[in-house]
Amino acid sequence: MASLSSTNCRAYSSTSSSSYAASSSVHHGHHQRLAVSSVPKRFLRNKISLQSQSNPFSTGVRMQDGAVATKVTPVENETPLKLKEGLLSVTSSEESKDAAGFEFSEDKSTVSITVVGASGDLAKKKIFPALFALYYEDCLPEHFTVYGYARSKMTDAELRTMVSRTLTCRIDKRENCGEKMDQFLKRCFYHSGQYDSEENFAELDKKLREHEGGRVSNRLFYLSIPPNIFINAVKCASLSASSSSGWTRVIVEKPFGRDSESSAALTRSLKQYLEEDQIFRIDHYLGKELVENLSVLRFSNLIFEPLWSRQYIRNVQFIFSEDFGTEGRGGYFDNYGIIRDIMQNHLLQILALFAMETPVSLDAEDIRNEKVKVLRSMRPLELENVVIGQYKSHTKGGVTYPAYTDDKTVPKDSLTPTFAAAALFIDNARWDGVPFLMKAGKALHTKRAEIRVQFRHVPGNLYNRNFGTDLDRATNELVIRVQPDEAIYLKINNKVPGLGMRLDRSNLNLHYAARYSKEIPDAYERLLLDAIEGERRLFIRSDELNAAWALFTPLLKELEEKKIIPECYPYGSRGPVGAHYLAARYNVRWGDLGLEQ
Amino acid sequence: MARHLSPCSSSSTTTTFSPSSFNHEAHLSRKFVVVPSRTYSSTWVSRIHTRINQRMHPQLKSSNGHPLNAAYMQDGLPGNPLAKEHFEPRMKQRPIPLSEPEKAESTLSITVVGASGDLAKKKIFPALFALFYEDCLPENFTVFGYARTKMTDEELRNMISRTLTCRIDKRENCDDKMDLFLKKCFYHSGQYNSEEHFAELDSKLKEKEAGKLPNRLFYLSIPPNIFVDVVRCASLRASSANGWTRVIVEKPFGRDSKSSGELTTCLKKYLTEEQIFRIDHYLGKELVENLSVLRFSNLVFEPLWSRNYIRNVQLIFSEDFGTEGRGGYFDNYGIIRDIMQNHLLQILALFAMETPVSLDAEDVRNEKVKVLRSMRPLQLEDVIVGQYKGHSKGGKSYPAYTDDPTVPKDSLTPTFAAAALFINNARWDGVPFLMKAGKALHTKRAEIRVQFRHVPGNLYKRNFGTDLDKATNELVLRVQPDEAIYLKINNKVPGLGMRLDRSELNLLYRARYPREIPDAYERLLLDAIEGERRLFIRSDELDAAWALFTPLLKELEEKKIVPELYPYGSRGPVGAHYLAAKYNVRWGDLSGEDS
Hints:
The structure holds two protein chains of two kinds. Chain A has helices at residues 13-23, 25-37, 42-64, 78-88, 99-108, 121-136, 156-166, 177-186, 198-212, 230-240, 260-273, 289-300, 330-355, 364-376, 512-515, 523-533, 542-561, 578-585; strands spanning 2-3, 109-116, 144-150, 188-192, 216-223, 248-252, 279-282, 313-321, 386-392, 394-396, 399-401, 419-424, 436-441, 448-455, 477-483, 487-495, 503-511, 539-540, 567-570. Chain A contains 18 helices and 19 strands. In chain B, helix 4 (69-75) packs across helix 5, helix 8 (118-133) packs across helix 18 (520-530) and helix 12 (227-237) runs parallel beside helix 13 (257-270). Chain B is globular, with a radius of gyration of 25 Å. Mean pLDDT of chain B is 81; it is low at 1-6 and 10-103. Chains A and B meet through strand 1, helix 1, helix 12, strand 16 and strand 17 of A and helix 14, strand 15, strand 16 and helix 18 of B. Strand 1 of chain A pairs antiparallel with strand 16 of chain B. Chain A: Keywords: Carbohydrate metabolism, Glucose metabolism, NADP, Oxidoreductase. Chain A: Catalyzes the rate-limiting step of the oxidative pentose-phosphate pathway, which represents a route for the dissimilation of carbohydrates besides glycolysis. Chain A: It catalyses: D-glucose 6-phosphate + NADP(+) = 6-phospho-D-glucono-1,5-lactone + NADPH + H(+). Chain A: Residues 115-293 form the Glucose-6-phosphate dehydrogenase NAD-binding domain.
């Protein structure tokens, strides 16, 4: 039984506007009405929440960490909203946001999505298909245009052909797929230009204007390009192709620098051209279904929150493994390594979501404030709490798998870790002393991403005798498997049916594939939708990013300065043995490498 | 991952005492006056400690020596420590007689009194065979049927063999085993009140026992009015001279406090407390057994197990058939006595009890009695009674209760009852415990439902719509059919929106344990043979249970409360909903969601 509440594509704006409303009772009734009546007016409501967000935003940062307080400049994209407000009613009173008035503005607004680096792999494999899926699900505004931008010379038709090859329709919604695809492709265009040419971006601007046809124009730039040209592209886009009447937002993907300094430099450069709330730093792991579900599990169930602390939780494990190596594309990776590639962003973000205190509301700023608090309560990583590894070649069943350094794009003497395990600690009242273990690796025996929560032993367990000697095996464990085969299960002890009194650890489980036959949307779909709607919950704020780098930078520097040699592990194995010793040091046993899983 | 234990052993594991506990006990024994143990006691129990926990007997003794003592013990009055001390020493005597020769010399005779009855045929003999098949019976054993019908051994064997089945997962050698088992079955015909006939039985038993140390178990599968006669005859004429003698009795244990008290007094004329095994076969059900395991061997449940987190608890029993022409016995008792006062109340007590000191029978039963004694006696306004009426559906018509020829036409006996109970202790104050039991309902099931409170300050309130009750967590233990445990949790529906859904974290037994689950009677018989009393009802428990229900039962009868009629095969009287609503509860089994 689903207790439904929101429409198909709605992310959070109903809640965000609600919490905003909570602060003023005048607001309250109003938004209530809107929320009830406006299923099709999604984007309108969104603007309300957007606007409400842009004001509290800067305060949010200050609240969060006084020192870092950013300059409170009038936010660029507020202007159009204010303008609109002005049109609707001269006073900025709440009453002005009349549902009817917004309908008016919706008709006039349009979104242009420019994929910068359109010929790249990510764009082809993820971004265009995600945009199409959103279109298919009716989650895009009525008026939208998709632009590909890259250096290659290509016609619109060529782009369409390229894009069409990667589009698929959801398994459960095949009807009209071909039609929809055609309609979508008609809205896709291409503009060829240099990434550092303001002139070329000005040309793009002109083309965009044409398509926007005088409507309020909102523009989203997705930078699917290497980090060294981020700034150039941002500069050109912002100076020459910003929207004059609507918002302009820029989505950037990792890497966000290599350490605290380079990350800060990048942020500073971005901020020369963009305001904080125009920057959408994507961490696609945060768009994963079960990561989204983590907060729902914690905060909408009574039974988990009482257990969510050092009192009941013995340790938490964040595990990411891939069953393939760099496969000839190690050039980028070798420069970063697994710690920067997976741990410092994806796993740390999940950790922060897992461990944060209950936020005031589900608004982006409230959640991100709590996440930053967690990060700032953490000890920077120390070398002795980290184990690094690199895969070596391995022959099995006649097939030889290459070593990392066999990759042609990787230097022969590379010390870049392809595996790392680390123990982290959060020195706050809730988590003091609880080890948070992370493990990430390439070329391992399995592909998975999961969170494991191991609970403490039952104090004074009446059934101790029935458990044999290894009491660790008898503890409860909550597993949230992010991929593959999304699932949640809780390991409990129960009696084996029969005349004896044998105890057994079984799973209380929820297997997503069994319960939800619908295909689970790709993380990029959610994130793109959120960016279009201005929902920042799943994007990383500058201060979050700084706090994350502050934890990892000393370690990364030390690893590089001391030229720490990674422990080799065979391709396709369970990773270096050192990870077990690291775990043992904190009385932990990796949950994914036990006999049972 | 299964942890070891022998297949037939029950929770009270034979354990190695750690050196430290040994020292501790030795120390105690020196310090306190040692009451000399009765000479027979060590021989009595000598056979069984392979399985049972040593501490159980001595403690029993104390309640046995002073029949009313149990109540004191559990109150923690001064009697307690003393009682505890004087049997500690015997714990250490015990392991010594456990020597091989003696073990070989003992034998077990199981006499099923009322062997020609339905229960005996359907449950007791098959359970005994299953135990034999699983190698859970001692090497030397004899099964005797006793009833008034004239029958030869051969005829008994024929009768039994028709109901024996081999477990699905262990078909091999089944026939061989069956033959072996039947060879150990005999029959003796006699009157239930004839000491002479029991003396004949005794001599037959002696013959089979052939000088070995005899232990005797009598299973009384007979109507309650002849309980006492049989117990008298059996105890006077057919008791074991130097082994133990135990008697298993089935409900009804009286009709109210008074008659139950009388029955107990009469039984105690011939038997000591520790010889009486009052069976409640619900306690032998797999998931009821599992209830304690769930609570006490998992960290995640116990912190939630109180009024802080639990909004209400529901104990639900329903049958999808009526009395079907056999209402004679039932009409005299009614659903409250038949199901609630025993099965459901026992489960409630197990559910709500504090953590016992150990898993020993006396410790567990002490805690159960405490729960019962903390409860308010039932009030008429907290009870709904119902009776099924005839109903036609799909061309088929189902009879009313009073259409049963064995039931008086004007019977007011409830075939359905719902009740709200309260435990006035620190853990459960204010939490409604709802019970519901009925015949001729739309479904057959027995389950425990635990509904948790709302999430305080729920961030996702908006996403739940108006009915927040639907959004609470719920733990369901389904006892039958299809044993399962599931926990309803809220999660996000996969997709771009933020719709919440209540799904289940579940463990379906059939899926995980394809093996057949043993019948409750197997476990209970085995426990009785091994002297494990955890699942049997002690006299003071029974008294406490009756004390809760007797005033209500009297009032119902005196005021001739007319039961609300409900159609055969329906969901029961609507009154049950109003009763629930009065305490802000919504029945979990009738909420529209299927489970």
